[in-house]
Fold this sequence. Notes:
The protein has two domains: about 1-75, no CATH class; about 75-130. The protein is about 50% helix and about 5% strand. The protein is built from three helices and two strands. The radius of gyration is 27 Å and the shape is elongated.
Amino acid sequence: MPSQLLTIEGVYDGKNIRPLEAVNTDKKHRVIITFLDELEQSSESAQAMTPEFSYIPVATMKQLQALAQTTGIGDLQNFIVNILEEKLQAEKDREFVFAVTNEIRTGLAKAGISEDDVLEDFNQFRRTLKRE
Length: 132
């Protein structure tokens, strides 16, 4: 049977080795354990709470857990994914607004309309509004 190499990251806490990724096999394997570098205390992550989010600092992870509980989302992983999806959508929206704004700016410049012209037109429009 051909041998296949699978590499995953993990953490050794002084007593146990814990994988930080899913191991996609249910068979016994011979492994080579290589110690790369020591984790610094100041950069300690939330791996004790959730290994899949080990790159998130402990203080941030605790805040996320508290926020997830107050919002009623029990599954922390889904909560974090929702936050990331919202952030991605906000960035897409921001890029869209900048693209439209640049198109408008370019169109106004081509038409020879200055910022002062736009502001004056807006002020004239405001004066026509009825005040209640």
